[in-house]
Amino acid sequence: MHKKVNQKETLKKVLQRIKKYWIYVMLSILTAAVSVALTLYLPILTGNAIDYILEPGNVEFGAIFEILKEMAGMIVLTALAQWIMNISNNKIAYQVIRDIRQEAFEKIEILPLKYIDQHSYGEIVSRVIADVDQFSDGLLMGFTQLFTGVLTILGTLLFMLSVNVKITLVVVVITPISFFVASFIARRTYKMFKLQSETRGEQTALIDEMIGNQKVVQAFNHQKEAMEQFDKINEKLGNYSLKAIFFSSLTNPSTRFVNSLVYTGVGITGALSAIAGGISVGQLSSFLSYANQYTKPFNEISGVVTEFQNALACAARIFELIEEEPQVPEIENAKVLDNVKGNVELSHVNFSYTPEQKLIENFNLKVKPGQRIAIVGPTGCGKTTMINLLMRFYDVTDGKILVEGTDIRDVTRKSLRTSYGMVLQDTWLKTGTIRDNIKMGKPDATEEEILQAAKLAHAHSFIKRLPQGYDTVITEDGGMLSQGQKQILCIARVMLCLPPMLILDEATSSIDTRTEIKIQDAFARMMKGRTSFIVAHRLSTIREADIILVMKNGSVIEQGNHETLMKKQGFYAKLYNSQFENQQSE
């Protein structure tokens, strides 16, 4: 029952998106009706032509020639109608697909980071690309064949009734068997196509992961395990695909068998009627032609039903993504954060990624403009989580975070995030020129400003050595750039914007010591007068911080400047001394 509701709901969503293109739908139905009517009228003309062949040597060629001219005109009109119908169907299918892809991409832009963190990138990409393509194929086939198929069946019945009611009743009695066979098979194909689609997403996710991390795979000789994992998923996909194709392939021969019964019934009944003088030979010929035309749409519709099962299974997956809960919307009339000086306060903040695992509990902090706040502690203590909360990538579970005395949930996300300049350990670049990557946060920046920012970040010298300098095109993985150069570009990006607050999360982790000294000097100038949050594992880099927060298991266990914390001889002193000893031993 759940599956039927699922299919019905998915179909309803598809029809809602088709509704806006009703003009093309009406045009498609109209041209399909014209095409079917003309096609169905041809057997009557053929039958009439046969009846003008009276006996050997007694043929009315004049009448036959007139009928042939009429048939030629109808064939041209039929071709024109079908051409317009196909254009309309293509327009509907591709416009709907464009809208769905746009909806999906827009939803990804507003999904909470929690969703992105919990789903592999490859699986999301598979939904937006592969599933939508499969849905497109099914939708196009449906529009191309469904209208003409249904209209052909109805039209053929009307034409047959106009010729002979008894023979038509034979056709109508046998027809339900075809419907039963098609629906019986269709019910079983949907489940297999859905499993096939899900496994395809799983496979895409694995391929994406392996390609993106090929260096790691080869460095740790993980090729064999990766291949075994791929083979396992591939075999599962092959199994589901085989079952889906097997069930769907039964449809056509099964309906053809029923159609043969219809043709046989018409042939026998018609022949007996012709012998008895009930119909002419020409009418019998028309009837046999109609029997063929009547049964042909059942083959086509059964094929469409099978393809449509696959399309609906894929559509269900893309609609799941589109209907995911978006991030908490901004409140009505949310304020635009302006004139930011750098006052930040965290009041009784509680946060956890999962309810059963507590992370940050009752955290309090008050930061004055221009202060440097260093966050240190062992891996998993909540340092990066703190950054996520400040930027409102995640919302606090309890308590509140205030900037300039205003709860960040009461201001627009754009104005909040524009107030921060952020450099992370994980670099992010986009496909485009070096210049495009630097001015990402300030699209209207002048050439002089871009060059100045690059020089401050010590990026100018290596950029000038690139083939096209600032016009060198790079991909999202940085292409020819080293990890350190990529990080320097991200630093230049922040240098260009110079917002009132800064977040530096291991910002120099991939930079050599000599360049780091220069960058630290640039940071010092950049941080002057700006509130700065610095996450660092190398404690030597944060000795000058105004406040050092020492975190452990989500709680701040120590707080103060470097000298104060060293005198306490607590957890921070142990961390600092252990690093110093390691450096000495090296």
Describe the overall structure.
- The chain has 586 residues and is an alpha/beta fold.
- It has three domains: 2-21 and 87-322, Up-down Bundle (ABC transporter transmembrane region fold); 328-419 and 502-586, P-loop containing nucleotide triphosphate hydrolases (Rossmann fold), CATH 3.40.50; 430-498, 3-Layer(aba) Sandwich (Rossmann fold).
- Helix content is 65%, strand content 11%.
- The protein is built from 18 helices and 14 strands.
- The chain has helices spanning 2-19, 22-51, 61-110, 113-118, 121-163, 165-212, 214-219, 223-275, 281-322, 383-390, 413-418, 434-438, 447-456, 460-464, 483-497, 513-527, 562-568, 571-585, and strands at residues 53-55, 58-59, 344-351, 360-367, 372-376, 398-403, 406-407, 420-423, 432-433, 473-474, 501-505, 531-535, 547-552, 555-560.
- A six-stranded mixed beta sheet has the order 8-11-12-5-13-14, with helices on both faces. Strands 4-3-6-7 form a four-stranded antiparallel beta sheet, with no helix packed on it.
- Strand 6 (398-403) and strand 7 form a beta hairpin.
- Helix 3 (61-110) packs parallel to helix 9, helix 5 runs antiparallel to helix 9 (281-322) and helix 6 (165-212) packs antiparallel against helix 8 (223-275).
- The protein is elongated and about 120 Å long.
- The model is unreliable at 1-5 (pLDDT under 50).
How is this structure best summarized?
This protein is of the alpha/beta class. The protein has helices spanning 2-19, 22-51, 61-110, 113-118, 121-163, 165-212, 214-219, 223-275, 281-322, 383-390, 413-418, 434-438, 447-456, 460-464, 483-497, 513-527, 562-568, 571-585, and strands at 53-55, 58-59, 344-351, 360-367, 372-376, 398-403, 406-407, 420-423, 432-433, 473-474, 501-505, 531-535, 547-552, 555-560. The longest helix is centred in the middle third of the chain and has 53 residues, at 223-275.
